[in-house]
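Minutes, project check-in

Agenda point 3 was the complex the collaborators sent over. CS summarized: three entities, 1443 residues total, and the question is how they sit relative to each other. Sequences were read into the notes so everyone works from the same version.
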Amino acid sequence: MGCVQSFREICDRQKNTNVRLSLPAVCFVWQTAMIILFGVFIRYNEESDTHWVEHRKANNISSDIENDFYFRYPSFQDVHVMIFVGFGFLMTFLKRYSFGAVGFNFLIAAFGLQWALLMQGWFHSLDYTDGKIKIGVENLINADFCVAGCLIAYGAVLGKVSPVQLMVMTLFGVTLFAVEEYIILNLIHARDAGGSMVIHTFGGYYGLSISWMLYRPNLDQSSRLQGSCYHSDVFAMIGTLFLWMFWPSFNSAITDHGDGQHRAAINTYLALASTVLTTVAISSLFQKHGKLDMVHIQNSTLAGGVAVGTAAEFMLMPYGSLIVGFCCGIISTLGYIYLTPFMEKHLKIQDTCGIHNLHAMPGVIGGIVGAITAAAATESVYGREGLVNTFDFEGAFKDMVPTRQGGHQAAGLCVAICFGIGGGILVGCILRLPIWGDAADDNCFDDESYWELPEDEESVPPILQYNNHMRNKDVSPDQSG
Amino acid sequence: MGCVQSFREICDRQKNTNVRLSLPAVCFVWQTAMIILFGVFIRYNEESDTHWVEHRKANNISSDIENDFYFRYPSFQDVHVMIFVGFGFLMTFLKRYSFGAVGFNFLIAAFGLQWALLMQGWFHSLDYTDGKIKIGVENLINADFCVAGCLIAYGAVLGKVSPVQLMVMTLFGVTLFAVEEYIILNLIHARDAGGSMVIHTFGGYYGLSISWMLYRPNLDQSSRLQGSCYHSDVFAMIGTLFLWMFWPSFNSAITDHGDGQHRAAINTYLALASTVLTTVAISSLFQKHGKLDMVHIQNSTLAGGVAVGTAAEFMLMPYGSLIVGFCCGIISTLGYIYLTPFMEKHLKIQDTCGIHNLHAMPGVIGGIVGAITAAAATESVYGREGLVNTFDFEGAFKDMVPTRQGGHQAAGLCVAICFGIGGGILVGCILRLPIWGDAADDNCFDDESYWELPEDEESVPPILQYNNHMRNKDVSPDQSG
Amino acid sequence: MGCVQSFREICDRQKNTNVRLSLPAVCFVWQTAMIILFGVFIRYNEESDTHWVEHRKANNISSDIENDFYFRYPSFQDVHVMIFVGFGFLMTFLKRYSFGAVGFNFLIAAFGLQWALLMQGWFHSLDYTDGKIKIGVENLINADFCVAGCLIAYGAVLGKVSPVQLMVMTLFGVTLFAVEEYIILNLIHARDAGGSMVIHTFGGYYGLSISWMLYRPNLDQSSRLQGSCYHSDVFAMIGTLFLWMFWPSFNSAITDHGDGQHRAAINTYLALASTVLTTVAISSLFQKHGKLDMVHIQNSTLAGGVAVGTAAEFMLMPYGSLIVGFCCGIISTLGYIYLTPFMEKHLKIQDTCGIHNLHAMPGVIGGIVGAITAAAATESVYGREGLVNTFDFEGAFKDMVPTRQGGHQAAGLCVAICFGIGGGILVGCILRLPIWGDAADDNCFDDESYWELPEDEESVPPILQYNNHMRNKDVSPDQSG
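CS then shared the predicted structure for the full assembly.
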């Protein structure tokens, strides 16, 4: 702690948000690197290559419709919407940071997915015969998933970091994600279809640790910009709803063909529906006069989708999904009411979007639910073949049993937490270097720092304008407007 | 009438919009009930259960792609978007009720779909061998459909009811819907793929009757909030467009595999395109200086989708779809211009969103078009097998002929109207009880009642601010903002 | 030139934006014509007709899932979203032309797609046995594509034309498109899956030529309305993101089943990701203080999708897609910075949305990339069967070789440019007639001309309000608001 503290002090510096050299440099260098690495490593797989027709005939596949594209493309597009519109617009709630929310989300997602294709490709899709990564639609989905982890982390530091810092955060985030995912899914053999552990727990703690490392003691100097305005809250609901509606696609996108995708979609649909009701209940109950708080509606309603991620493909049962959603709505909303202020005050973690309540906690719950559900699986419920299919008890793991699988799930959860916290502290150190162009404490949450803003008198509170006007002794209509 | 009148007077009361106890109570009790009922009744069907692999082999199904999930999931997601973004944002047009529009839409849809899965399940998906309801993706679509009926009704009372009243309205609405649907589709054997009768006619008259029961003679006291502002109209266009674009999925979501879904999508696409042109024409023709009215563009452009709902799966022919759309654009827009003010003044029906013009009338037209198209069906056009497939002339109805089917369709329409009006009056009585926390007449259409609003000086007309300011003798710049 | 100039002067006239007769007349006449023509010509094809069941059995098709509907419907819906929400909202960036942007886009797309079904049907889907056009889901996609060309052209004249002019522009645009497309795809046998040439190059030059013909020397009189405001820029990002996310569906919607659709989606996904980074880099590098410009983020990020359109179905290779995107981000952004002002000043082309940078230039690049990629195709990369499939070397073209195909691609590009420029000048002449109700130079970019606007004090710069107020000597709070 002392060490971290002194490192923080070393890094305190005069702030300069000019990224005119650093941002283009990072973009060009990294995009060029991507092109070179893609040239060396990445090729189409047998389902997206022109040899598909021959492959089809050789493998006795009766129709083009059996191409994995048709199993997964609709879900892929839904996930894509979640990443770019969902995450992007969810963060537009701040009154003067909508450009940064949706624009930087766009930038880091577009970079992250390229790097993710490489990192995940090396671990999962490397063809050892020619040393190439062979990609298809499932790789695109996984790349989007990987990016989701970094976008979650962005939520914790929204408005407080520069785009260059975000690019660095994404570079390391994707790298850590790919390693963590390989350990959890392949080495530990945990199942995590919707990424409760791999995506949400990791992404949540990664962002929170970075935010802790970048703690700004005087952030209240920009408190005037920390709230929402009426229309920015409506914009944020666009993000909320597209995340909410397409979450069934998120959790079912890479599950097994057939019943796996079908069941994951149903479970997620139900869990999310249940969350909405308990979120509304708690929001109303804990607010003066029973009024609802948009922050809760925008965020906590999604917690059920996070928490059902791991178990969505299991036989969680419809009522099981409802119970998971029920609990998460309560916990997440209470988190916004009590935990976020507590963390800011006592733990020095400033969590702009409350990702602890929306991703980290529900992710951990999701991991636990997954472990319990897996441990409780029986042949009478799943059927012999169903059990093997669902938990992939094949190859090196053909002697696995449900109870042990439960233990492996729990181990996976621990790995995700460790990678999140450890990685976040490491990357936080890097991001404290005084070279990244982040804003000063009194200048956070302001698009002014990184965006050309329209000359837009509307957006300044009008009475201030009037007062400025008066002070300038300049009331003639010709000079205004 | 006299009885209703006196009942109204009895219910007049001091208004209190505090729902701090009632709303959480309703949410918790009902969600808990859902969990218990789902635990007792709801299970996965054979296509979403882990036994699918064995089922597939036993039934000689060659590929996972034959799972109903792949036939319907893309349409399901489109319908889901219509329910949550489409209906939600369509209602954001009011300048200060966007939170209520999109937020309460979210709440009642999330509750309604759970209750719909149960109600519709008992009627349609009950497995008599074990007494369980077996659900798959088609049930999810039907639940969304059922909810649509209640959201239509919400449009009539938008801004005038409390969230608790909406929950009650949805509980009864879903119940009535399921019964009505069972009578129309199963007992009467009418076909209604896109729900012109079952969803739109029922939902429209249900909402209008409730609005009539809740008539507010002094609603003009909140007329300052009854209009739109520039940006709220743009938000509403998000709703309009997502409804418009995905309506082909709505009407084809539960039709027969193959040509049924294909044809329903084409017919709906064409009807909607045609409606846009006649809506624009009438809107311009009846407005001073030929200017277009956003209310018409936001709403009447959708009427063609409603009116083609029943006949979309029939051989309506492309030009038939265009004609239906042509007429509905005219009728619906004229409805907004003449009928809505007439109904408010003379029939005491205050219809906030004009659902009579968008859902009720076009729904009735859709029912009539369906009856005519069915009665006119011939083997030469449909083919023998096509006729049987399309109208489901099988089992108990294997001796059915098209002309008689036309009569059954008409009967179905009558049932929908009766259930809508009767159910609406009944539920309206309940909603008049002085316990629900709805706003006073001068306080309608205001998010202030149920939402914590951002301190958002922008949204108050600026000159009022200035005046308030002056009255407070408080012009120092430091204290403002 | 001199001739054009004098024609321009002849057409100068007193402006009157009242379209109360002309707009309804055009809508009614054209929609009625559509109904008649559809009645005479358009029928369902064998996959959307009730005879499908018999067709299936006769052709030994094992399952309903082989209906083309299931191969293309998800992509169709994505394309539909791009046309209506994507193009519509992308143009909402102007502070007072959001109604016109999204509303007129809606109107002309709804008309254009009907006319496109006919025009394209005559060329591509005419059944010579009965003289009918047989339509299915692929026709719907192609109609949407055709409309896209006209919507691109709308971008160049946004805010400067009346809805009647737009209808005329769309009528001719669709007609020209269908002829041009037939020449390029069928006669020249060029391939153009994503329409780099057929849609974007044609649409871009069509719009630019019209804008040149309609040059307004005094357009700076409405410069006060030519910019964006904060929220209008966020609305425009909705358009940008839906275009960006669904572009893989656009480029893969009508490619070959199986690997063709799969590969086109992957290539487009990658090209677009790469474009985002170079757009951000150039935007920051060329702006004072390194601040990003929303115009670039909203538009140039999409250029990669345009430029990869033709080659998306070829074996462009993942790194090839990245390179295309890389270059287009740079060129398109530099176009906004240098070329658009240059064209306005020296070429008298006023390009409201900068379609030259987003569609025309990237479209030409796409045509060139397509020609090179086709010419470089080899059997070792594609496989014998893959080569024949991908380039359709069948029937009359069975002796075609890749190098010659490259030449045909280049010829196709020239045809698209010629049709765009020639058609645009022709239609521009028609649109200069003084009968269409377009606005005066000082009245452009203002929804006031064609829309009933809400009484919306917010949207007037507040200090002006205050001043107006003062001048009216009318400060009493009762009369304001």
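Noted in discussion: The radius of gyration of chain C is 24 Å.
Follow-up: revisit at the next meeting once the mutant set is ready.
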